[in-house]
Write a structure and sequence with these properties.
There is one protein chain. It is elongated, with a radius of gyration of 58 Å. It has a six-stranded antiparallel sheet with strand order 2-1-6-5-4-3, with helices on both faces. A six-stranded antiparallel sheet has the order 8-7-12-11-10-9. It has about 650 residues and is α+β, with helices and mostly antiparallel strands. About 20% of the residues are buried. It is about 40% helix and about 25% strand.
């Protein structure tokens, strides 16, 4: 090597010359020292690599041009070994030292494999010869290879499949750890065994002699080859094998198969279970007494049962999966399976389609044969629609029968009302005459009757006729209430005045039985808007009932007040009371509680039903609270909106 490649020489250090301080690094940081011998260029002449020669003190004795261009100007990685550390290790071990060094030159990273060794110059002196081999490209590809291998290992670990490889004799040479998780067999237990002999394949794809797939003899790729493999616990796993044959690039020699295995055992079980459930569901739908049709989100028929088809015999053969919902009804209407009840074909189909799209209340259909269907549409979670069709012909017939019966009953009721009105008019005329003449006779206004018994007879006739007239008036009022013909003649009504008027009418009967009527709980300032005559009629009916069923010496209390929600009028007695189960009966016209104690009390049973009707006419309610032997309390509640003043 030419002298121009060497650094200037320095005098050789003798044993008495102090050793210079050691310099770190691998570049030109240490100062160059000239040595008399040997010829360093000649020493490194056979090397084309970057080279550096230093003494044991760390002084650079020689660097060649390759070193000066590639290594010296580059920045070292922070944790690179110092030159002093290298020299110390060489002196300690006496063996060559080798490591990789990363350098940054002009913002580009280079990797050098460095080799350091001691070279003896003479008996007293040695030098350190360092060579630098550029392995940047090799390091790059090795890094890429490691990265690729790492990625492959990660993918193999993450995938649900397990990866396998065989040698040329089809014996298992490697497998991923996933095989242990799936089958319980450890990889070491299977290595070296004939791989395809671990599985069982369908007989029609196997060679009878080897019991292995015929395609293996042809060394062809295969994909998703189904087989079974027994796990360690004896359970059979169903696998799908995929494999590629491998060949030597140079001589084409077969090297073995490489591939994957997918465990589809659970998937097959789930598939069988789903098929079983689907069969059960289909059987259940076919067994339904109602028509069933399932449509997808776009309105195409997915599933239909026989009952649905049978409703439309002329269109039955067209009702198959895939037909559009609107097309179904177009065919059904045009083929005469339904009665559109006077609607035009287009209008009827549009109404049915609108109902289907909005899934509103049930849709009623009349078939051409006179039967009636009720169709319900329900939305599914995926946007589809389920249509359930029920035959309601019997219900419609019962409805029609009930309608006819109702019309007959209403006609009878009208006839009854008209009869009562006519009879009331016809009876009132003679009754008024009887009452008038008996009153004249009882008072002997035209002269003495003679025997005193005649006067008593006249009084009895007058009382009986008056009672009969009162009964006729009650019957007429109840009939009007049932017919909804009662009307209010509203005015301001003083509750105190109405109570006093009613009590006066019944005071003689109460005094005759020594019954006390207490009015102290009546609000004297209570005035409401209502029909005064009907309010008094309510009070008279309730007081009359209380007097009738209260034994001698009893008491009756009236209460009238307004709370925050209602105007309350209540009559409480200490009478015989009634069984709570009989309360609905006494609120029915002409009904009475049927027991031995009550049979001694006369009456038609119209008072309480009429009072209830009059209270409801005012927008109020009537409530009865009673118990046998503990008296009865009847409470009328009217809306607070009727309160005028308090």
């Amino acid at each position: 090597m030419a002298k121009t490649d060497s650094t200037p020489r320095r005098k050789r250090r003798t044993a008495n010359t102090p050793r210079p301080a050691s310099h770190g690094g691998h570049g030109g940081g240490a100062r160059a020292v000239a040595v008399a011998t040997p010829d360093w260029g000649a020493l490194a002449a056979d090397l084309a690599l970057p080279i550096r020669i230093t003494d044991l003190a760390g002084n650079i004795l020689y660097t060649n041009r390759q070193f000066q261009l590639a290594v010296a100007p580059a920045a070292h990685e922070p944790d690179a070994p110092q030159l002093s550390d290298i020299i110390q290790q060489l002196e300690t071990s006496g063996q060559p030292l080798q490591f990789d060094l990363r350098l940054n030159l002009l913002d580009r990273i280079y990797v050098y494999r460095t080799r350091h060794q001691l070279r003896r110059i003479d008996a007293e002196n040695s030098v350190v010869v360092s060579t630098f081999t550029d392995i940047t490209e090799q390091d790059f590809f090795q890094h890429r290879l490691q990265l690729t291998q790492s990625r492959m290992e990660d993918l193999i670990k993450l995938t649900g499949d397990w990866v396998w490889e065989t040698d040329a004799s089809l014996k298992l040479s490697s497998a991923s750890a996933r095989i242990f998780e799936l089958t319980g067999w450890h990889v070491r237990e299977l290595l070296g065994r004939e791989f395809f002999g671990l599985m069982e394949f369908a007989a029609n794809i196997c060679d009878p002699a080897t019991a292995q797939p015929k395609l293996l003899q042809q060394l062809t790729p295969f994909r998703e080859l189904v087989c079974t493999m027994q796990a360690r616990n004896g359970e059979l796993h169903t696998l799908k094998l995929s494999g590629m044959p491998q060949f030597d690039r140079d001589d084409g020699r077969f090297l073995g198969y490489r591939g994957t295995a997918t465990d589809i055992t659970q998937a097959l079980r789930a598939e069988r279970q789903a098929a079983l459930l689907e069969r059960r569901l289909s059987h259940a739908i076919d067994s339904m007494s109602e028509g069933f049709a399932l449509f997808d989100a776009q309105g195409y028929l997915v599933l239909v049962n026989p009952v649905f088809r049978q409703f439309y015999p002329n269109s039955e053969h067209l009702l198959t999966p895939g037909i559009k919902h609107m097309e179904i009804w177009q065919q059904i209407v045009r083929r005469g399976d339904v009665d559109t009840l006077g609607w035009g074909t287009t209008e009827w189909i549009a109404a049915r389609q609108e109902h289907f799209e909005k899934a509103r209340k049930p849709f009623e259909i009349k078939l051409a044969d006179g039967r009636y269907l009720l169709l319900h549409d329900y939305r599914t979670e995926d946007g589809g629609t389920v249509s359930i069709t029920a035959d309601i012909t019997d219900i419609k017939q019962r409805e029609e029968e009930l309608l006819r019966a109702r019309q007959i009953a209403e006609g009878a009721n009208r006839a009854k009302t008209e009869f009562f009105a006519k009879m009331s008019h016809e009876l009132r005329t003679p009754l008024n005459a009887i009452i008038g003449f008996s009153d004249v006779m009882g008072q002997e206004k035209l002269g003495p009757l003679g025997a005193s018994a005649y006067k008593d007879y006249a009084a009895d006739i007058n009382d009986s006729a008056g009672h009969l007239l009162h009964l006729i008036n009650d019957i007429l009022d109840v009939s009007k209430a049932e017919a909804g013909k009662l009307e209010l003649q509203e005015q301001n009504v003083s509750i105190e005045s109405a109570v006093q008027s009613s009590v006066r009418m019944l005071s003689d009967r109460a005094q005759a039985q020594n019954i006390v009527i207490d009015q102290s709980a009546v609000d004297k300032n209570l005035v409401l808007r209502g029909d005064g005559k009907k309010i008094r009629q309510i009070l008279i009916n309730l007081l009359s009932n209380a007097v009738k069923f209260t034994p001698p010496g009893g008491n009756i209390a009236l209460r009238a007040e307004a709370d925050g929600n209602n105007i309350i009028i209540a009559v409480r007695d200490s009478g015989i009371g009634m069984d709570p189960a009989d309360i609905p009966k006494v609120l029915t016209a002409f009904a009475q509680v049927d027991n031995a104690m009550n049979r001694k009390y006369d009456g038609t049973g119209l008072g309480l039903p009429l009072s209830l009707a009059l209270a409801e006419l005012h927008g109020g309610t009537l409530q009865i609270d009673s118990a046998l032997g503990h008296g009865t309390t009847i409470t009328v509640r009217l809306p607070i909106s009727r309160l005028v003043q308090r």
